[in-house]
Design brief:
Largest sheet: 2 strands, antiparallel
Strand content: 5-15%
Structural class: mainly alpha
Number of strands: 2
Order of helices and strands: HHHEEH
Shape: elongated
Strand order of the largest sheet: 1-2
């Protein structure tokens, strides 16, 4: 969701891009912001001028951390699978 918000600049557009309801996406963003020490997403209310959402510095760090952990996990699985035999 964070990467899609960065890409689309709004929670609703990010939700549409992954076929998720806006309500579910908003709940996810609200949960991430609530449980993080600092918000991951900053949003502005819509209206005549339009709203939008962007990632905070913490949101950007969360994406980088996710990719680093995922790379470590993929490397672990690749190494571990070499030693597995039936």
């Amino acid at each position: 969701m964070l990467e899609r918000i960065r890409e689309h600049g709004s929670i609703s557009a990010a939700a549409r891009s992954i076929e998720m309801s806006y309500r579910q996406a908003w709940a996810l963003v609200n949960s991430m912001n609530t449980y993080s020490h600092t918000p991951l997403v900053s949003s502005a209310t819509g209206g005549k001028g339009g709203g939008g959402a962007s990632l905070t510095e913490t949101g950007e760090k969360a994406i980088a951390l996710y990719h680093a952990v995922r790379a470590d996990f993929d490397a672990f699985l690749a190494k571990r699978s070499e030693s597995l035999t039936l």
